[in-house]
Amino acid sequence: MARNCIVVNLDRCTGCFGCEVACKMENGVALGERWSKVLTVGPVGEYPNMTRYALPTMCQQCESAPCVSVCPTGASYRDEKTGIVLVDKEKCIGCKYCMMACPYGVRSWNTAERCVEKCTLCGHLTSQDKVPACVKSCAAGARFYGDLDDPSSAAAQELAKYDDADIHTLQDAGNNPATRYIMTSMIGQWQERVEPKGHPHTAAYPMAE
Amino acid sequence: MEIQWSLVLFTALSGAGAWLVACAGIDAFKGLARKTVVPAIVVGIALIVIGGLASATHLSHVDRIMAVLAHPAPGIFLEALLLGIDVVVAVVFLLLYRRGASAGACKALGAVAVAMAAVFSFSCGSSYMMASQLAWNTPALPLGYLGGAMASGAACWYLLCAVRKEDDAALIWAAQLTVAGALAAVVLPAVWGFASGVAAGDGAVLFWVGVMACGGIAPLACGLVGMKKTASALPLAVVAVVGAFIGSVAYRVLMWTASVALMSLFGVGI
Lengths: 209, 270
What we know:
The complex is a heterodimer of chains A (about 210) and B (about 270). Chain A is an alpha+beta fold.
């Protein structure tokens, strides 16, 4: 099955929030809700060895998606053709189990429709061989979409330029997130686990944890 | 995370109901509280059903609930399935008892009722074991659910025995069951309290006063005194029931307030 996802090159990301805005515009995401969010990690460390970077976040398209396995109605499901984790709002009963089970808290509650929603990787665009709105709008050219298993995809080609040590995922709790982040030592030290501290700034967890 | 009161009441009430039916099932082996078995099963079924209805109020689209039949995933489906089976077991047990079925049949159903109570009350907690929730992802959490339900159900049995004015032997046995349930309500929630850090964290007062003192020590003391003073069974049973329910509710409230997400990148609460 395809592993379609977003690859973000943090060496290039300027933290402009353009992806966040493009997502809301394209998908009509309600005021106060998000399917995509840019966090600022750090600064952490001590001068001169400090790290601070923008971290665009969205559904990580986990290969063992906990949101899918806990959903009692099958409203959270993986599309067989694209491999993308989606929400069928017609089946959602609003139990919010998937929101509890998501390791990254990247699902939103649609107050008007009283159901859960999230990033769809702009399926309405990608099904027409277009790229997601966040990828198209990225001013820094830092976002790439495609199947990780397809060497010709933009996502796979960007990853191929870097060493494994420079390719990261958010902390994996057994869910195998597909989304990849590229970050070299030029930017600083990758922080595996981050904790929001207000909007939009983020502090890294102490290294001891 | 916000306290989900619908789910708190669901597991507190349904768990107590399941264990009340289980106590009636245990009595099928002892035969001490003949006047109490029928009302206990009826009240037990009522508690299970009311709890189930409480859980439905948590849903935004109850009209789509039948969709769960198309996706028998663990968790909510398992809880609903076990709840339904438990009600069926209780109804069959009630019918057998009312129609004077053989002792063997009643004992068999009684044993099933005990097993179902244990499985159901444990599964209500095991649904919350998720890798994304650091304080929940331990078997100690559902064990705490089990302990609280045992205490609540046994205390309810003790109360019904007292209300039905059973003889001393039945009251002493009911008090002993209350002691057993209360011990479970002390030991099992304590394991999660220490494993999750709740026992020493922000919720320490609620844990020690609500879960331990009210939910465990109070029914334990009532049961121990009740084993010797059958004349005071009614007030002792009332205190045991109130304490056990406070403990059950407090434990579940603590579970919600102690939620620690692996990451909450959007800062969205539920």
